Amino acid sequence: MAASAAARTIIENCAIATVDANDTEYASGYVVVAGNRIESIGAGKAPEGLENVVRRIDGTGHLVTPGLVNTHHHFYQWITRGMATDHNLFNWLVALYPTWARIDEPMVKAAAQGSLAMMARGGVTTAMDHHYVFPKGSGDLSGAVIGAASDMGVRFTLARGSMDRSEKDGGLPPDFAVETLEGALAATEETVRKHHDASFDAMTQVAVAPCSPFSVSTELMKQGAELARRLGVRLHTHGSETVEEEQFCKELFGMGPTEYFESTGWLGSDVWMAHCVHMNDSDIAAFARTGTGVAHCPSSNARLAAGIARVPDMLKAGVPVGLGVDGTASNESGELHTELRNALLINRLGAHREAALGARQALRLGTYGGAQVLGRADQIGSLEAGKLADLVMWKVDGLGHSTIADPVTAIVFGAAAPVTLSLVNGKPVVEDNHLVTVDEDAIARDARSESQRLARIVAQG
């Protein structure tokens, strides 16, 4: 539809952080949305005489930013929150795999709805899920997750995960929790062919995503990379999360994680890794040289005592970095907007101290950085004419923020800001801090019921 014929929404009188290449900001400006695109943006009032204006919003007391982009998550963990709270990564996985291996389609759907609702209500317009647990006979788990995202109205990337290295092979998952090499590859290809949309305004995309070096065979890593590139989709996995993982790789493969990834075809501009906490200078240089992206998950890294990722050094080297919630069994809040603050604060505990990250760098990680990592920086992640209309209006004149003069500082350093409006593809998903596309109370009830059912199944053995 031509812009002149599209229905228009105008937001005026708001502060704007565009997160474009020049970090352009307006103390008081406007955004015009036409259909599913940003038509224009600037200082002052919107242009006069625009046709087909269906909604005009007074943004006084608000900051408008690009929608937040989540680059790493495990939705199914929503129904196993609050467990193994004092464990490191490996012990936490061993404690929870027997429970996760009993999930089924209704559980996964309820968990996905809960995870998506919590993120969307907090300003996420593009979500991502790395689902890698597929018990035999559990139903269409990928379809359940994609359906939940579609119902919510958020833009979505499914990273179709897999595991084929179980306890009998020296891995961590129980033997009954993994797929075969051939089964994992076939199911992943089927998911890509059925659900991936490569168009500019795609609402659903799929990536190839074997889980991690300690749960996946070398052959699955190699063939997974070949499959992704044959199908023209992105690649995702966990990498360099803990010191134990580094030791595991050296003992099993005779090399560190980054060397192992490079040997299996897993470095490149079409790849992003979750965590990347334990990276030396040569690892960071390899990521920068190849354009490999990073999903930084500060809360989960702290929750599992994994360490502090070297985000300032990655950014200086030119590594694409976005933010991730990670699974809600290792980040029980399930929110991405809190990761803006936590990324800034936790990185200031590292070597760079107060110079590690600033408020605008944190906002960029959560918006444009995430779009880069997901391969969609030309479509989302900044407010620019021609880009998709994924944006958020944050209320910054209330009790929690009214005495912080700079609105970007307010939403990063301050309390979690209420979301007055969130648009995805030009359509409202959140109004006045509540989801408008789904019933939040029903989602909470369903998730609680499925969590209790899972607990009963596990208790019965």
Give an account of the 3D structure:
This protein is 36% helix and 21% strand. It is built from 14 helices and 17 strands. The chain has 461 residues and is of the alpha/beta class. Strand 2 and strand 3 form a beta hairpin. The mean pLDDT is 96. The chain is globular. The strands form three sheets. Strands 1, 2, 3, 4, 5, 14, 15, 16 and 17 form a nine-stranded mixed beta sheet that branches. It has a four-stranded parallel beta sheet with strand order 6-7-8-9.
Number of strands: 17
* Rg calculated over all Cα atoms: 21 Å
Distance between the termini: 56 Å
What fraction strand? 15-25%
- What is the residue-mean pLDDT, rounded to a whole number? 96
Summarize the structure.
The chain has helices spanning 89-100, 105-121, 141-152, 181-195, 218-231, 243-253, 257-263, 281-290, 298-303, 311-317, 337-347, 359-373, 407-413, 440-459, and strands spanning 8-17, 25-34, 37-43, 53-58, 62-66, 68-69, 124-131, 155-162, 204-210, 235-239, 271-275, 293-296, 321-323, 391-395, 419-424, 427-431, 434-435.
Which descriptors would you attach to this protein?
four-stranded parallel β-sheet, 461 residues, 14 helices, alpha/beta, nine-stranded mixed β-sheet, single chain, globular, 17 strands
SSE layout and pairing:
Elements: E1 8-17, E2 25-34, E3 37-43, E4 53-58, E5 62-66, E6 68-69, H1 89-100, H2 105-121, E7 124-131, H3 141-152, E8 155-162, H4 181-195, E9 204-210, H5 218-231, E10 235-239, H6 243-253, H7 257-263, E11 271-275, H8 281-290, E12 293-296, H9 298-303, H10 311-317, E13 321-323, H11 337-347, H12 359-373, E14 391-395, H13 407-413, E15 419-424, E16 427-431, E17 434-435, H14 440-459
Helix pairs in contact: 2-3, 2-14, 4-5, 11-12, 12-13
